[in-house]
Recover the amino acids of this structure.
């Protein structure tokens, strides 16, 4: 009897366990993140298209990667994102777009960027680093529907109008056949904006100090200083902690410095690259010779000074652009496109924007101890009273008396400035740390070509040449970050290629493409 009783009890627990297992198997899986799209654009849902892509893992049930779908066809305008590494969600009007859509496209499009791993460090942001086309807003919510964070922009017409008022803005504007604005290109894609050569040369005789931190595999601080020559070139002298992490002398010619302010070129993901980045970002945001002086430690309000060194742990986060200037000069003293984006949006206007203000929302989800269960993207109407969470001061251009009106040219005038072309490969194979990205062609010759390959925001490969080549294969070599990230025989990675070509006549052209890189081997 006792044995029978125990047997019946054991059978009961087996039945209960089986029932629980069946319930778990039949229960819907918990969503990593709900992504909701709210259409306030004034356009019908049938005319709004959504495309989701990633530069890493992709797991968005029901949504095929890089395949446009009408918003009206997405149930509840909501999708589940289980994983999306270095992802983009494109929004376009009237027609769908795919990854790598050219910036002269007749379709108006823009996008949000996000990474869902999920880990506590996941974030989402809007960006105008390449262009501005559609005003949008991002909001996060917890499981109870409580609102957590917001970043957003003013309405498109407000930002379009402001960009028409800065030198180069009208020429960098792309319009449709009816004259309506499709987008305004950034300095990465338009040579219409004036360079900041006068600003750089105005630093002649000025001594600056850079206190930089490099958050790499080995945390390193640096202290460098230098005095600008009459032409704007500078030689920085300094030391690192630990020692010898960067050259004791870093020479930067004026021409490279002036050009790299817009492009961010010459800043590899190493200690020397971080030093060069801080020099460039100081010019981009108008810090040098401004109200904070010429010691970069004063460009942040949370400087750390300890035995390791002196540095800004969160970048240059003092109020930037117009707020960084004591008065207007006879020439622009900041990157004016980025200054306008900073004034009217919580959006990346250049790669350094996250230091000056908050431009991202956290996606720390319950699985990693966070609260975020839903991310909402709102497509704003072209006109209205929308405003960013944090505005800014864009007044860092030339004094009015010294600034002639910018001529208004047809969009074709911008395209006519392009001197070089590129035929980027769609696929390439990584062999011994190198791969071929394509071919760059200049009408006469390319005096200089510099290129970087990016995986998300990380520079994973570089390539360059100088000389009289008119048509040459662009071969790229992995950076330290690339050697760490692009591993695994047979694996494939989607990379973004950004190249800068300087022709024999000095004309500069930005070239961009995407390719799928395969690591050699099975």
């Amino acid at each position: 009897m006792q044995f029978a009783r125990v047997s019946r009890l054991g059978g009961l627990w087996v039945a209960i366990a089986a029932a629980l297992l069946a319930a778990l198997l039949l229960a819907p899986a918990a969503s990593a993140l709900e992504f909701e799209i709210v259409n306030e654009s004034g356009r019908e849902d049938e005319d709004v298209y959504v495309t989701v892509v990633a530069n890493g893992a992709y797991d968005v049930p029901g949504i095929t990667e890089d395949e446009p779908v009408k918003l009206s066809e997405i149930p509840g305008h909501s999708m589940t994102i289980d994983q999306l590494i270095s992802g983009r969600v494109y929004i376009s009007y009237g027609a769908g777009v795919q990854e790598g859509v050219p910036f002269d496209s007749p379709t108006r499009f823009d996008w949000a960027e996000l990474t869902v791993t999920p880990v506590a460090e996941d974030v989402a942001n809007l960006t105008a680093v390449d262009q501005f086309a559609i005003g949008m807003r991002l909001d996060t919510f917890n499981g109870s529907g409580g609102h957590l964070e917001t970043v957003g922009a003013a309405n498109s017409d407000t930002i379009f109008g402001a960009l028409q008022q800065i030198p180069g803005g009208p020429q960098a504007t792309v319009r449709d056949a009816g004259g309506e604005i499709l987008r305004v290109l950034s300095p990465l894609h338009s040579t219409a904006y004036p360079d900041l050569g006068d600003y750089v040369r105005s630093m002649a005789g000025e001594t600056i100090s850079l206190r930089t931190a490099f958050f790499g595999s080995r945390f390193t601080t640096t202290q460098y200083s230098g005095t600008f020559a009459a032409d704007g070139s500078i030689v920085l002298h300094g030391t690192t902690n630990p020692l010898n992490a960067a050259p004791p002398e870093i020479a930067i010619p004026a021409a490279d410095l002036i050009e790299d302010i817009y492009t961010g070129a010459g800043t590899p993901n190493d200690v020397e690259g971080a030093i060069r980045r801080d020099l460039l970002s100081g010019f981009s945001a108008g810090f040098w010779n401004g109200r904070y002086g010429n010691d970069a430690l004063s460009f942040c309000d949370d400087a750390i000074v300890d035995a390791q060194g002196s540095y800004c742990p969160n970048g240059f986060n003092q109020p930037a652009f117009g707020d960084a200037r004591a008065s207007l000069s006879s020439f622009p003293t900041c990157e004016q496109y980025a200054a306008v984006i900073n004034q009217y949006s919580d959006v990346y206007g250049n790669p350094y924007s996250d230091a000056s203000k908050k431009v991202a929302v956290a996606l720390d989800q319950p699985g990693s101890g966070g609260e975020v269960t839903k991310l909402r993207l709102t497509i704003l109407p072209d006109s209205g009273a929308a405003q960013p969470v944090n505005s800014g001061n864009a007044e860092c251009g030339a004094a009015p008396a010294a600034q002639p009106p910018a001529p208004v040219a047809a969009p074709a005038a911008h395209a006519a400035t392009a001197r070089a072309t590129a035929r980027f490969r769609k696929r390439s194979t990584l062999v011994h740390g190198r791969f071929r990205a394509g071919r760059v062609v200049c009408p006469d010759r390319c005096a200089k070509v510099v290129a970087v390959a990016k995986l998300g925001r990380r520079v994973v490969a570089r390539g360059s040449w100088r000389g009289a080549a008119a048509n040459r294969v662009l071969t790229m070599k992995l950076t330290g970050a690339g050697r760490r990230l692009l591993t695994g025989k047979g694996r494939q990675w989607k990379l973004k290629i950004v190249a800068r070509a300087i022709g024999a006549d000095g004309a500069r052209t930005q070239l961009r493409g995407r390719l799928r890189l395969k690591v050699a081997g099975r």
Observations:
- Residues 197-331 form one domain.
- The chain has four domains: 1-29, 34-193+339-379, 197-331, 418-519.
